[in-house]
User: Fold this.
Amino acid sequence: MEAKVEQYKSLLKKYGQEHLLNHYETLDETHQKDLLNQIEQIDFELIQGLYHHTKKEDKHEKDEITPIEYLDKSKLYDDYKHYENIGKKAIKEGKLAAVTMAGGQGTRLGHHGPKGTYDIGLDSHKSLFELLSDHLKEEGKKCDVMIPWFIMTSRENNKATVEFFEKNKYFGYQKDKNIFFFIQGELPMIDTEGKILIGEDGLIKQAADGHGGIYESLVKNEMTKKMREIGIEWVFIGGVDNCLAKMVDPILMGIAIDKEVAVACKSVVKANPQEKVGVFCKRNGKPSVIEYSEITEDMAEARDEDGELLYGESHILCNLFSVNAVEKMGSNPLPYHVAYKKATYRDKEGNLVVPDSPNAYKFEAFLFDAFGEVDDMAVLRVKREEEFAPVKNADTVGVDCPKTARKLYKEFYHLD
Assistant:
């Protein structure tokens, strides 16, 4: 191990990160090994590049942004049955799996534990995980299949998540047969000088690499390989916090197969032109999502001849991919977006620093940045009240909170 330490000292000096080993001697043997493993896995060229990127402004002025076509699920009429039959056939043949991104904690909700274990306040006291599993089992039963379920956790919550499922007998699933857990990737956090932070435990302080890391995580953890082994061709990817997510949707499947596209996404129409959400568009002729901060007021207000917003299809993180597309997207690194956050850390002398304002950069990839990898995709507009009830904020905020989600869930399932 000492030889490894000497080897890493040289590497760290090259990138100005020597401080990472400053307090190596004070760690116990387990933590020493963990720290060396962390250093071994860091792409220092990438971190250096990301730091330099924080000094530049993102510019999209040269991008040509145009509206994207979409289908309205409530207006398919004669085509509805056509798409449904195609989708049902594929689901019955066992070609669909669901992936739930569940790496977050329920901190904002005042919940201690993985967000998926949160009880939104229904009379049944079912957790978000159980509500999603109910949907998967119910829809699978209609097609006489058990929809395989892949759950992406984080290093922080993996143990607690798996224990929660064990305690609840996997909600009727069988571990490693039709339910699989894998861990999201992470990237080191850095300070404003580009120095990698050391956390309270003496190890490198890392943060999840964003929902865009899903593709690489699925490939690196051999989940796409597992999918192929069990005959999966399509995978629905969504977040754990949308308790009305329709992960098994024959219509969406049918559209993707019929139109021969590798990606099909659901949208809900913006509540108003100024709603702060990312919307589907075409960027330089390729499918994309434009963030609200990129949209001019004129674009936000623009309407077509039917009075519909030209840029009104909100991305709600409900997306269907072919396994081929996931593997392609997982093999090409996505651009990282920077966020300026508060981070508690240990300084060079080993003192604990607890900031009262943002002091560190974290880097995240966005799932929709991979959409440009495909030539075309299908967008299906669904009704907000039927498929989008996110639990992101505490009730005090008043929107996208347990209270609003609970109301939508009860109304949809006629529980009151």
In short: The two ends are 63 Å apart (CA to CA). The first strand starts at residue 65 and ends at 66. The chain has one domain: 42-412.
